[in-house]
Structure formats: C-alpha cells, structure tokens
Amino acid sequence: MSMTAHSQRGVALLTILLLVVSITVVAGAMLASQKIAIRRSGLLFDQNQLLQDIHAGQQLALTVIRADDKLNDTDSEQDIWAQPIPPYTLGTHSISVELRDEASRFNINNLYQKGAVDTAALALFQRLLTQLNLEPDIAIAVLDYQDTDSDVYQDGGNESTVYSQQSSATVNNTLPNQPFVSVDQLQAVRGVNTDVLATLRPYITAAPYFVPVNINTASPVLLAALVDGATSEQMQGLVDMRTQRALESIDAVWQLPNLSGLNEEQRAALAPLLAVDSQAFMTLITVTDNATVGQEKYRYATVLVSKTANDAEGSSNANNNSSNGNNANNANNNVPNRNPNGANYNGDSKKTKQIDVVAQRLWAFRPSF
User: Which keywords describe this protein according to UniProt (predicted)?
Assistant: First the structure.
C-alpha cells in the first residue's frame, strides 16, 4: 500500500509540475502578446503623430505661399517664402519647414507634354547638359524614357534595342513611357550614373506638370543654357538686376548683351519656357521629438506644392493668348497659358492662384535638398 501511495504522490507532483509549466508558458505567451500589442499601439500612435506633424508643416508652408501670393505677382529670393521660417513647437514636437522654388530648376517632364515633344525645352536641356560638361545625348534618352512611342527620337532606332542595357528596362526591354516621379529615376536612364546625377541634381526637378523656369530664381548656369555659347559669368548681370528688384517680365532677359541679338522667332520659342513667378515649390518638413532628452527622434517629409491659376482665370488667359497665337508649349490643363513676356496675368488687377499639395513623400533620413 505504501508503494501505491508513494506512486500516487509522484504522479500528483508530476501533474502539478506540468500544470505549473503550462501556466508559465501560457503566461509568457500572453505577456509577449501584450508587449507586441503595446508596441503596435505605440507605433500606430507615433505614425498618427507623425502624420499630424507633417500635416501641420504642410499647412504652414501653404500659409506662407498663399500670404506671399497676395503681396505681388512675382516670386523672387526677396519674398517671404524664401526667408528662413522659425521652427514651430507642437507639444514636445518641433516642426521645421524649408521652401525651395522648383521653377528655379529645369523640369525634365517639360520635354514631353500632351503627347508631343517640346523641342524648345529639349534644346534648353541639351544646352544645360553642355554647360555642365555632360553629354547632350542624355536629353534624348530622358525624352525617350517618357514619350509614348517605341522609337528613339529623331533616330528611328527601336528603343527596346538601343536601351536594352538600361536598368529601367523590363523583361521585354521596353521603357516605362511615362513621366518621371523623381529625379532619382534618372539613374535608370542610359548615360546617367551616380556622378552624372550628382552633377545634374541642383539644376533639375521632376514636377508632374509643365513648369516654366523662373528667371527671378534660376541659377546663372541654367540661365546660360537659354542660348548657345552663353556662360554663367555672362548671366551675372541678370542675377545682379534681380537682387535689386524682382523682374516683372522676361523682357529684361532680352536686354542682356548675349541675348539682345535673338530675333523674334527665337524669342517666341524661348518665351513659353520662362516666367517671372513659380508654379511649383518643394517643401522639406523636419519633425523632431524632444520628449526624451538626448534621444531626439527625427522624421522627414518632402511635399510638392503647386501654384497655378484658377480655372476661370486660366480659361481667360487661354482665350487671350490663343488670339495672339502664343499658346504653344502650355502643356498642362492646370497650368495657365503664358503670353510672350512670361507673365500669367491679364490687365493690371491682382490674380489669385490655386495653391495645393500635389505629392508627399516620407523619408527615414534627411533627403538631399
């Protein structure tokens, strides 16, 4: 009997041990699950907070651009959008906003608009490449990347054969045939490596609609690309002029010695590519979490803001410019037609603009800006 009782006690002890182990395992699993749930909740909270901070930064940028638009009809480095914006504090978070005029750069999507090649824009881009000591044929490759046909521009060769070595090519070696979303995509274009892109980056953008070059903010290098043989040093006169006062029309460009010799046909070809205001701004939003001293978290976002004429105004401009025969190269329904002097306005009254966010991109690190 004692042996049986001893065995029973052993079984009971083993059962208790198994129960303890089972309870420990279940408790551990519940604790791990709870930690995951807490972590997930924390991440969702951080994500929501980030989106709120970015939204606040967007609204700040929009407010600055809209306020500036009410002051004048031009965009220059003397305007309030071009001045440093003090950080905005929201609880334990700090939000910083930097604005950049995308019209101070050449928009590579200008090359192909409304199903047609803009030959004047293509020539300007080729001259810009030459200014930077890069191969002008890169412009053709950039155009073929986005146009909708399957032939190399003005060459007749098949794109799938000529560009078969491009990393952008798919299995059947066809090009995307769509506009660029980012200048980083240029690395998929034949002839553009890391060094070439680094050289080009300060002078180009990839806005999803037609953006003329703002002569009030464009660099001397880009201004020199307006005509063959010009140099950035020769464009210093224009830069000096605009530091004193924003240029209100592109007529000032034709007054420069190396541009005064252009005939009416040449000026008419260039004029639609130029403006005295900006139709696109890039915003860099930096969010800093100062909740834990010494362990600040940084988050970044870039936001593209468009500034285009209201529909009614754009229609009025279109009718007026069409009657003058100067509506070529106005390549987006949301972009107002431009008259020969580069202004987007009719009469002397102040015209309001439609200012909206076009695109947003989140970054885990500070992007090049």
Answer: Cell inner membrane, Cell membrane, Membrane, Protein transport, Transmembrane, Transmembrane helix, Transport
Residue 107 burial (C-beta neighbours within 10 Å; 0-12, 13-18, 19+): buried
Q: Is the pLDDT at 329 greater than 80, yes or no? A: no
Q: What is the dihedral of CA 105, 107, 111, 115, to 10 degrees?
A: -150
The pLDDT mean for the chain works out to 81
Dig out the tokens for 95 from the structure: 């939000």
Residue 155 — pLDDT band, cuts 50, 70, 90?
Answer: confident
Q: How far apart, in Å, are the Cα atoms of 257 and each of 137, 208, 235?
A: 29, 34, 10
**Half-sphere exposure of residue 41: CA atoms within 13 angstroms, side-chain side:** 6
Contact between residue 200 and residue 183 where contact means Cβ atoms under 8 Å apart: yes
Asked whether residue 335 carries a pLDDT value surpassing 80, the answer given is no
User: Do residues 93 and 288 make contact, with C-beta atoms less than 8 angstroms apart?
Assistant: yes
> How wide is the angle at C-alpha 123 spanned by C-alphas 279 and 203, nearest 5°?
50
- CA angle, 259 as apex, 254 and 264 as ends, to 5°? 65
